[in-house]
What we know:
Helices cover about 35% and strands about 30% of the residues. It is an alpha/beta fold.
Amino acid sequence: MSAIEEIICSAREAGASDVHLAAGIPPKMRIGGELFSMNCSRITGADMLDILIRIMPEAFRDRFEERGEYTFSFTLSRGGRCRASAYKQKESVALAIRMIDSEILLPEEMGIPDPVAEMYQKESGLVLVAGLSGSGRSTTLASLINKINDSREAVVITLESPVEHLHSYKRSMVNQREIGLDSISYSEAIHAAVREDADVIMIGELKDAESVMAAIMAAESGHLVFAAVNAASAVEAMEDIVDMIPAARRERMRARLAAALEAVVYQQLSPTADGDGREATFEILLADEEVRGHIRADRFSALYDAVEHLF
């Protein structure tokens, strides 16, 4: 077993969510939000290069050299699937590695509340899944896609950077595209997914005006669109994506967003009652006529009263 496989396997056995590697110190792992040193020897600069070469696909190495950082996914025969963010520091390389569960659970197996889980039944429209980094957004999105895959005949296209959870073909055809590798950008890939006869489109993150407008267009044209947003609440997710739109176009885009939106789901990880871990808590904003009216009128502060807190 290679050094990186030993590190990843040890971290998984300990229940870690992340592993951090840098030259000059032993590996560290994050468990329940806290960082702990692993019982390993210090990693050298040469070790870091060996690890990077082992896990980073060759196609990404030039981009890493040019940019100084790059995020990618990899699979180890014994360590399972992970997402890695490699970055240069102190004339060396460091890695932040996120563990990805090999098994994608269904929403009912994960304990996702029914109002959130039921989003998989929508035929069309936009469902935003919001949360901060590390909140479990991608796991929830993967679970919803798995439910669609398990229960209906559909063409599903996921757009991710990088591809994390791997979906097998079940009842649905789930095709997964990596931004930067399989397509130039999120906005280009969303427009392409519409032409590719997708029934469901999953967008790994909305972070610019072009991808927001493309996602709304896809939802308007009869597709079910799930999209992740980095935000601190359901209402802030709405405000943030509208703020991405150029000011001259916001009024029109608010009207289109109001018409296309089905729901905004927000999740965060909170300490369990016994303090021995973390669990996901949710809030959901369902788009009824009152909510749509507030969006069109730019009254986002009024949306807080419509948010339902789920535990």
